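## Example record

The block below lists the input lines for one assembly entry, exactly as stored, with component labels intact.
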Amino acid sequence: MICLRSLPLVPLELKSPLSFRTRAQQHHSHPFSQTLRSHTEPHKTLTRGGTATTTAANVALSEHNDLNAAEEEEPLPSELSEELMPNHVAVIMDGNGRWAKQRGLPASAGHQAGARSLRELVEICCKWGVRVLTVFAFSYDNWIRPKVEVDFLMNLFEREIKSQMQKFVSEGIRISVIGDSSKLPETLQKLISDAEEATKDNSRIQFIVAVSYSGKYDIVQACKSLARKVKDGVIQLEDISESLVEQELETNCTEYPYPDLLIRTSGELRVSNFLLWQLAYTEFFFAKELWPDFGKAEFVEALISFQQRQRRYGARLS
Amino acid sequence: MEKDRGDSANQFFGGFGSFLRKCIFRILSMGPIPNHIAFIMDGNRRYAKKQGMEEGAGHKAGFLALMKILCYCYELGVKYLTVYAFSIENFKRKPEEVQSLMDLMLEKIGELLKEESVVNQYGIRLYFIGNLNLLSEPVRVAAEKAMAATAKNTKTVLLICVAYTSYDEIVHAVQESCKENRNEIETLYASKVSNGVTEGVEEGEINGTTEHDVQGSCENSLSESQALNTTRACNGVIGVEKKKGVTLRAIQGSCEDKWDEATSRTSNGVTEGVADSKKKQWMHPTIKLVDIEKNMYMGVAPDPEILIRTSGENRLSNFLLWQTTNCPLYSPSALWPEIGLWHLIWAVLNFQQSHYYFEKKRKQS
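Predicted structure tokens for the full assembly:
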């Protein structure tokens, strides 16, 4: 698994999964996130949410070291509140096939159009200060699709990574890939490895691509890893806790492993074995548009919906 | 006289309503009926506030709504119902509210066990799913008593999640799987040592690459209704080979119902994890998906086919994360005590529509 790192044991402070916060309350006190930070250059914690005024995104963005000065600014739409922006957005990019079929095109055309949509979304998330964007590019369950389509998708991933590499580096995008990479073509595996290495110190946004990924198998591999540790005497059976499981999941490559918002396009109302553990308190937004038709306006709609929600995490807001 | 007329009118409309409902259910039953529906009963407190009732009254109204929905579902032919009654996170609420919920639970468990209750009417087997040790003694004892008392019922099943979160369920399953795995290794090691030969070859890490454990092949001939009735993984060893006195666990797979739009029903899973008999090296048995699944509290029921969360919230709140990966989530804006027949009908119609859609896709591919 590409993203799995063996981390040194950290104090077993129970990290509550409920500790994702709005930007206004951002502070990273969890020992796990401290450990992660040591993997990368220390990066500036965005504290603009803590200030009293809601500054426009273009002022806040200038705090980033990685910002390309010549880049076009894109302020946050007025309907959105900067303080309530999600830290981590996850997307199930569904509907490429249907989009192509509607136009009498082959599925490959749908996937190309989908890739374009994705590029636009990455750019928007970058500009609006989303910290992590995770996309479900290819499920472990998708390996059974026709070989022609699967091969096309693998080629598409390779082409996209190659063509976007320069942008990742210049715009401070850190790319991570989660999923069972052993089933990917070797050339793609190498490309991914190189891309992750080249961008590992980038800190403007983390772009996680789930390829050959399954939420259930993520938990199974975490369980196997824990079983190994128990066998080796590194931990006791009784020590296995929510915190330990979380640390073993593939999303341990990020400071924000739990999406605040999950968007699924094409009107499907299910998660389809995307992130499982990580979605416990995630707000879902089901968009009826097909993925190639999902653009800035639709993203704003999802964000508006998200910002209106009252998140209680099982407790009660008094 | 007026009152009598009023009562007769009520009786008439009640009877007519019941007749109408039965007609609608009969029509719905011509299509596929979900085997298992799960509910997140959200909105009791907001309902109480809206109606100007005192806080505890919202939960009482919620219980009445549960009984109503329960009857509708079982009448329709749904076999399994799961409800999210109390999350582990809910223990963080005000102690008075937690206590009143516990008292309500105790009271209602008692009522359910009475002779004339719905439990006997519909032959319901009760399960209390969750970390019951977190409950106070009287509630836990009552829950265990209720489970024992209804253990022989076979018509329908009601799973009440109390002191439950998916995290707790998964961690428990992981712990149990690790414990079994450790015991398995110890047993095999002991047999290896005692026999002096390499035996008990199992799947494991080959050439340092961890292989994917669980694959399977779902036959195309699996009919939709079968798939619907067995939405959870069908566990078990599919093939066992004996080779030169060494038992190889050839294929241990799970068939999973796949709902992706472009996925054809014929899923030819890759069979992996077969120990190379030529290598004959000793490898540790590893944990598989089926091991975790069988240790889940919810392992007593198939996966839900519909998940309904009331009050318009669009999140799972740590409910059945494992079991709902392929299950649609419906979020009517009605608060839980306001849930009615039409919400159920609408959910079932949607279910039938997507069922036919996937059938059509399957035939096309």
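Residues 21 and 365 of chain B are 38 Å apart (CA to CA). The radius of gyration of chain B is 24 Å.
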